[in-house]
Amino acid sequence: MKRLWTLMSMVLLMSLVLSACATPVAAPPAPAGETAGGEASASAGEVKDFTTWYQYDENNEDPASDERVGNQYLRDTIPAFNEAFAGKWNWVNQPKAWDRMAAELVAAVQAGGDVPDLFEMGSGQVTQFYRNGTMQDVKEWASAQPWFADLDPSAIAACTGPDGGLYCVPVAERPHLVYVWKDRFPEGFPTTPDEMLAEGERLKGEDLYAMTFFGSTDFDGEGATRGVWMTISSFGGTYDDGAGNMLLNTPENVAAVEFLRTMVQSGYVPEIAFAGGFQEENAFKDASAGAFPTGLFGYRYVNPLTAPNGNEYTKGNEEDMLDAITAGDVILSTFVAPEGQTPGCEVAVAGFGIPVGATNPEAAFDYINWIMSPEQNVTWVLTAGGGYPALLTTREMDAFQTPFYQQAGKVLSASACRPWAGSMERPQEAQPLIMDAVYKLIKEDPTADIATTLQAAQDEYNAGN
Amino acid sequence: MLPFWLILPTVAVLFTIQVYPALYTVWLSLQTREPQGWRFVGMDNFRRLSGMGVFGESIGHTIVFLVGYVSLTLVIGFFIALLLNRKLRFSGLYVTLLFIPWIIADIIVGIVFRLLVMPDYGLLSGILQNPALFPPNGLSVLTAVPPASWVGNFPFPPAPAMVYLIMAASWRALPFITLLLLAAMQTVPTEVVESSRIDGANGWQIVRRIMIPLMLPTLVVAIFSLTLSGMNGVGMVFSLTGGGPGSSTEVLSYMLYTLGWRQLEFGRAAALALLIAAVNWILIFATLRVTRVEERNN
User: Fold this and answer.
1) Which residue of A has its CA nearest to B120?
2) What is the mean pLDDT of residues A430-452?
3) Same domain, yes or no, for B135 and B275?
């Protein structure tokens, strides 16, 4: 009897522990409009915390921090928001590492842990969050807001999940283009692959490199979304078949990889391009590489700069690149493309998502409406977001008529930018597969058959469909 | 009843932080995530894991890393322990200095070692990338491609980045292993060593015939402790090589990290975690068995 009692106590205790630790059944992503209207907002006089997860940290005042621009933005903006919503919301930001914040959020939502009211996200995460039931569908709420009709339709499409729900509110569009040291290409930046190879040979003779790019497999194949995708798409290639399958083994892709392989094996690309950790930027900063295909928002990170003519841009912030562009040392360009092809590039959207389980979604709605006001919108796009405003009227404002944005506008109108993942529903799995294959072909084994290697990566991904 | 209540807190803590997560991992390894929630997929995660090209590569890299890391650390640790075992002046100071790497987080060690050899910009890159010293093109440790394999698909000889990773990991593990071996060395009776010396044994014979056999239980513990830490450590790979160049330093623990925390494939990550746990269990049982046999022999 005593043993039975002991056993029962143990079972009771274990079940208590288990139920305390158990993962709550994730609620299906409820349309956020219901939450907004259904629950009471902060009652009058009661200030509630509004929690955000940004990759920026307002308490990090290190001028050498990679995220100094965003850090400063938060330092300036948090007091302004708290003043605008005095008595209602108190903005509390929890800084997160950019390459781990998505995983932390998914785990927090699935475990029923603490999640923020608002999450800074990119459109590249929409499918991943949709599959994991992480974000609320804000379509009903967003489409009722006055600014919604002013959003670029392609930005809305980028935030739309496979079920038609809106899983992020777009604020900035981040296309990719090529930053070029003008003096490294006296005849102008090449427009065709053959011209690029010729320039590469010329620059090699001067102990310089034609270009640097994210050539490593670091960050789980992040490179597949950057220079490699720019090359593939400029050759008319693709990563998917439009029906959710990976499609790598195409003549266009093979030609693009062949071009990159020649660039690398001929010594037209510096070794640092393959070191990972965004170290490839160094070769552009000191002008040892003439060109650098990367995101438009890259201007915030690539500094300080030393131009080929000796001009130095040493503020150590986003102004360095903008100053170099204004001075004419750096120009923006499309990537090279074979005859008959339009230069391609990646385009992603930066904005906000509201996680499932957010405590104060009303605060997030207030914040998004605040950010969509003209003044705040400009500031966010120029600093925290980078890129172009998703709001079409904001694009007309003076802040976006600078030499930088004028050049970027011309370049992008001459490019055909599209999201690299296309119809693939597991982009995070596709990314390392693609980059591993491309890396092996262009760097590790220059004799490997390109079509066979691309086909193997394609088959491995499609086996999971 | 008193014994029951006394052990209850410990059992509850163990259950919460060990048994429940373990059972949850088993459950997770049989699920996949869909927008509506979790779906049971049986052994599908294990099947898909074995179909991943990088899985086979990671097993090879893990074996190469473990063999290199354990043997290098043990050999160097043994010789440093031999030196410290002599009655040197300032030996306390040497032991204190020796301990510095052990108190630095492995992720920091990785960053520092990375900065040393960063291509074109690292502190040592001027020496390493000098073609005169390392013909024909110099040595870019972090980006040099692996040499052609001697053994089919098995990654041997390893890439320079793997050798460097082994060196960095050994550097950090050396203090602990050295002190462990030094402690064991100091238990070897000096009379035995002295009498063997009088009988004409040279230094190598003393080490091989007397010290190593008498230190065997400690050596076994050191080997398994190094193997376990090498098998499960991810910080150094994360900060030093990021699994690269290509996938040439992608070991199983790093693959587990990327599957779970980068790709958010929790089901497959759980399946891999179970496989790694199985290897760990085998190592633990082997350690226990060997040490028990030794105890019995003693």
Assistant:
1) A272
2) 96
3) no
What amino acid is encoded at A400 in this protein? F
Asked if the structure places residue B5 within a domain, the reply is no
Per 3-state DSSP, chain A is made up of helix, strand and coil in percentages (nearest 5) of 45, 15, 35
φ, ψ for residue B143, nearest 5 deg: -120, -5
Q: Give chain B's domain count.
A: 2
- B243, A217: Cβ pair inside 8 Å? yes
Assess whether B117 and B250 both reside in one domain: yes
- 10 Å CB burial of residue A393 (0-12, 13-18, 19+) is exposed
Same domain, B230 and B297: no
Domain hosting B30: range is 15-51+265-298
Question: Domain containing B180 — which CATH number?
Answer: 1.10.3720.10
Residues in chain B: 298
Q: What integer pLDDT is reported at residue B289 of this predicted model?
A: 83
Segment B193-208, tens digit of pLDDT? 999 999 999 999 999 9
**pLDDT for A102-114, tens place per residue?**
999 999 998 899 9
Cα–Cα distance, A321 to A300 (Å, whole number)? 8
Structure tokens that stand for A284 in this block: 């552009």
Q: Is residue B95 part of a domain?
A: yes
Is residue B64 within a helix (H) or strand (E), and if so which, with residue range?
A: helix B53-85
Report residue B143 as tokens: 């980006």
Is A274–B242 a contact, with Cβ atoms under 8 angstroms apart? Answer: no
Q: What are the C-alpha distances in Å from B75 to residues B67, B70, B79, B81, B212?
A: 12, 9, 6, 10, 12
**pTM summary value:** 0.86
- Confidence bin at A98 (pLDDT 50/70/90): confident
Residues B197 and B101 in one domain: yes
Inter-CA distances, A261 with A5, A213, A227, A443, Å? 72, 13, 13, 7
Q: Give the model confidence (pLDDT) of A150-183 as tens digits.
A: 999 989 999 999 899 999 999 999 999 999 999 9
B194 is a domain residue: yes
Residues B47 and B63 in one domain: no
**CB < 8 Å to A29, chain B:** 35
In-domain check, residue B271: yes
B40 and B22 in a common domain = yes
B interface toward A at CB cutoff 8 Å?
Answer: 1, 4, 8, 11-12, 15-16, 20, 24, 33-37, 48, 51-54, 114, 118-121, 129, 140, 142-143, 145-146, 241-247, 258, 260-266
Closest CB from B33, B53, B146 relative to A132: B33
Q: Are residues B135 and B69 in the same domain?
A: yes
